[in-house]
Amino acid sequence: xxxxxxxxxxxxxxxxxxxxxxxxxxxxxxxxxxxxxxxxxxxxxxxxxxxxxxxxxxxxxxxxxxxxxxxxxxxxxxxxxxxxxxxxxxxxxxxxxxxxxxxxxxxxxxxxxxxxxxxxxxxxxxxxxxxxxxxxxxxxxxxxxxxxxxxxxxxxxxxxxxxxxxxxxxxxxxxxxxxxxxxxxxxxxxxxxxxxxxxxxxxxxxxxxxxxxxxxxxxxxxxxxxxx
Length: 228
Known about the structure:
By secondary structure, this protein is of the alpha/beta class. It folds into two domains: 10-61, no CATH class; 64-221, 3-Layer(aba) Sandwich (Rossmann fold), CATH 3.40.50. It is 37% helix and 18% strand. The strands form two sheets. Strands 3, 4, 5, 6, 7 and 8 form a six-stranded mixed beta sheet that branches. Strands 1-2 form a two-stranded antiparallel ribbon. The longest helix is centred in the last third of the chain and has 19 residues, at 195-213. The radius of gyration is 18 Å and the shape is globular. The two termini are 35 Å apart.
């Protein structure tokens, strides 16, 4: 989705050099995979890979580090994850001072059950919840403009209210988002004034505001990590 690939280079100190596109530095397991080879790892190996990506990468100065967690340092670290409570998420919450977590969920009830569990998991490891994001919130017909709530409506907003956190935004089910993601050029660059582009920009702005306005309790609760 970032149009990045190829062999990963290392610095003289042995740190991974993250490739960059759209002024965003990236590190991904996908950079090390060949074709459709699956990753079949258990928890300890997954946590070791996360440590390598976080602390074994020459990130340089960053405004924010976003860790995008698939299902099942740093002035600020935002964790953005689809629903789930796996070893990787718990390991991050226990070993690093996280500035906050953003829970992403689609509107249907089954997805929201996992989203709520994920939110409670972060609270148990003292990671502040910055808010919820509703993905695939609605489909808007490009021909007639009719809006259809294919996966239901109101569920993510209700979950956010129950958890006492804001609904940061709603991202539509949109073919242009899919196309731009496939070619590695974000819709916020090609169509920033579109409803989808504005949704992403608004979410990012709210996350930034939440990070700058609220103290991070996780920093007080988590140990300082040093690397010898």
